[in-house]
Specification:
- 51% of the residues lie in helices and 14% in strands.
- The protein is an alpha/beta fold and 343 residues long.
- The protein folds into two domains: 133 residues, no CATH class; 183 residues, no CATH class.
- A four-stranded mixed sheet has the order 1-2-6-5. The chain has a two-stranded antiparallel sheet with strand order 3-4.
- Helix 1 packs parallel to helix 3, helix 4 runs parallel beside helix 6 and helix 4 packs across helix 8.
- The longest helix has 28 residues.
- The N and C termini lie far apart (62 Å).
Length: 343
């Protein structure tokens, strides 16, 4: 048995089928196998299936580790809404709590188990990655400096990419699908809900909105801090959306091409993602903590330079100042998309 326990919220519900509970524990056992391969101890994972996941997550504000403000947590993201969130109760990440939206478990569709398994496997992968990083990963301190903010954004996107790949590996052990030619292959999440196109469209639109935001600041000179905060927040969500889209594209045997061709109209994203993807694929999925730590540290440093270049493409550069930094906003003729339009 895995070190996973399942609770329903509210606790008086008894709607979850026994076969679903069995699947959840099976997924927990598979991820425990990842821990064994990386010589990590088994984790205590509490999985809470909630009728109001966002509210349940907000109640954990102050009782889990990390830098995120959960008091204002919402499920909305670039590309849609999230169905779950993983958090940790201690610094070595050996005690985790996963909140899941109960909606995905109440679908009457015959293939709903694929979505359920993928979401749970993705969150359980986060519990494994958290332990792996704690044992030997790159430890980042909270920071407001752009170069270090960029490292945090890269880490968020990298972890989502790795969690998706581990989820795909886990899901493949649960079943197979028969193709029209009579052959079979392991099941994958895109069999019931391909979303790469939606993530790509949302990421491109979000970057255009960031460019417009920077342009409005140029015209008004109003609220520099707000513009910068909105820029790095949007950048985080854009990179995560691309990470999810890329991992789904990787899974696809029928359409294994990279995302780059689909990003032709958004030149800065195409350039940035080409470099970030090459960085991400060098981080090992399974292995000893020290190996992961060294690879992640190198990835965050290299990835941060890519993000800073992306911001420069949009017209933002930075310099040191007493007790902080300065933000320099370039003329439109030097920034995307205005520069490209004038070529």
């Amino acid at each position: 048995m895995s070190g996973l326990v399942v609770h329903l919220d509210p606790p008086d519900g008894a709607w979850m089928e026994s076969h679903t509970l069995k699947m959840l524990h099976w997924l927990g056992a598979v991820v425990d196998g990842f821990r064994e391969r990386s010589e990590l101890p088994r984790a205590a994972v509490e999985l809470i299936v909630s009728d109001d996941a966002a509210a349940a997550i907000r109640t954990l504000h102050g009782s889990v580790v990390g830098v995120e403000d959960l008091g204002n947590f919402t499920m909305e993201r670039v590309g849609g809404v999230v169905a779950a969130k993983t958090m940790f109760r201690n610094d070595d990440h050996s005690e985790a709590v996963v909140i899941l939206d109960s909606t995905i478990f109440k679908s009457p569709a015959a293939d709903a188990w694929v979505t359920q398994a993928h979401v749970v496997a993705h969150e359980l992968a986060h519990t494994y990655i958290g332990q792996l990083r704690s044992a030997g990963g790159a430890h980042l301190a909270p920071s407001y400096l752009p170069s270090e903010v960029a490292q945090w954004l890269v880490r968020f996107a990298l972890e989502e990419y790795l969690a998706d790949r581990l989820a795909a590996l886990t899901l493949s052990s649960l079943g197979s699908v028969t193709l029209p030619d009579g052959t079979s292959r392991p099941v994958r999440s895109a069999d019931v809900g391909p979303v790469a196109g939606e993530f790509l469209s949302a990421a491109g639109q979000a970057l255009c909105e960031v460019a417009d935001l920077i342009s409005r600041y140029r015209n008004t000179g109003h609220d520099l801090a707000g513009m910068w905060r909105s820029t790095y927040t949007a950048t985080e969500q854009i990179l995560i959306a691309l990470a999810h889209a890329e991992s789904e594209r990787e899974e696809s045997v029928e359409n294994p091409s990279s995302l780059l061709a689909d990003l032709d109209d958004v030149t800065p994203l195409r350039t940035a993602w080409a470099e970030l993807y090459e960085i991400f694929i060098r981080v090992p999925l399974l292995g000893p903590p020290a190996e992961f730590g060294a690879a992640e540290a190198a990835s965050l440093a290299a990835g941060a330079r890519v993000v800073l270049q992306l911001w420069e493409e949009l017209g933002l550069t930075f310099s040191d100042a007493d007790e902080g930094f300065r933000i320099h906003v370039a003329h439109p003729s030097s920034s995307w998309p205005y520069r490209d339009a004038g070529d």
